Amino acid sequence: MFSGSVVPVSWYLILSAILFSIGVAAFLIKRNIITVFMSIELMLNAVNLAFIVFAHRWHQVGGQIFVLFVMVVAAAEAAVGLAIIIAVFRARNTLNVDQVDLMKL
Amino acid sequence: MYLVLFLIFGGLCVAGALNLLFQRHPINSALSLIVVMSSLAVLYLLLGAEFLAAAQVIVYSGAIMVLFTFVIMLLNAGREERTHGSKAAYAIGIPGAAALLGALVYIFLSNGDLLGPTLLGASWVVPTVFSATLFRDLLLPFEVTSVLLLVAILGAVALARKEH
User: Fold this and answer.
1) d(Cα A61, Cα A73) in Å, to the nearest integer?
2) What average pLDDT does chain A have?
């Protein structure tokens, strides 16, 4: 095995796990609703990396196809989520998640 | 060379993600998320996913993050204030995320030999194969996503519209 031209699959998976854990921590710790939403995007990206590594390792096109669909769903989710954030800000005049604790607008 | 590129851009990913966590202003978090997504595009390129690397730059670090920064500026989001709810989140969030990370890293390291190596330039999934699968075998799901995007656009317009 040549060092320098080979990276173990497990390193990519560990990088993916690190990014996902940071996303989980940011989701729980951050108090700004926009930053909470951004940490969801970070978790989606971490999972995409794992999909692409597996697609590369086992020569399967399915992993890359799945990443494409995740991207499409993430784009749709970002549009709707940011519209909801704008609606919440109009109703409450705040972006702090602790002050948005009712389902009613 | 491959290892060096992986370490540089993997390190950039982790640094950007940590910066997202520690910055208190949402615009700084958004900019560090752009760094994470662009570095991930380079890693996709190293793994032989050329089309997805381009899509990552265009869709994620282009379109989605422009939408985020636009909303941050539109709502004039300032520094996030610390409220009493964040104490509990610190007490549960950091140990929970650390436990998750520890479990995943343990599993991946103990199965490292089984998972094997990745080689640079040994890609089997070329764009031809990718597009043939997407547009021939998976044509119906692909067309359904266009309906999803249309519904998302309508929903976004309906939600963000000012009520009279």
Assistant:
1) 19
2) 88
Mean pLDDT value across residues B130-142: 91
Residue extents of the structural domains in chain A: 9-99
Higher per-residue confidence, B44 vs B162: B44
Per DSSP, helices labelled H in chain A are 9-29, 33-57, 62-92
- In angstroms, the CA B110 to CA A62 distance is 26
Q: What is the DSSP string of B87-143?
A: HHHHHHHHHHHHHHHHHHHHHHHHTHHHH-EEETT-----HHHHHHIIIIITHHHHH
Chain A positions touching B72 (Cβ under 8 A) are: 34
Q: How many CB atoms lie within 10 A of CB A26?
A: 25
- Amino acid A105: pLDDT: 62
> Do the Cβ atoms of A21 and B13 come within 8 Å?
no
Q: Domain A9-99: give its CATH code.
A: 1.10.287.3510
Average pLDDT over residues B103-112: 90
Say yes or no: B139 contacts chain A, CB-CB below 8 A.
no
**What does the pLDDT read at residue A1?**
44
| Chain B residues touching residue A43 (CB < 8 angstroms) | none
Q: Chain B partners of A8 at a C-beta cutoff of 8 Å?
A: 112, 115-118
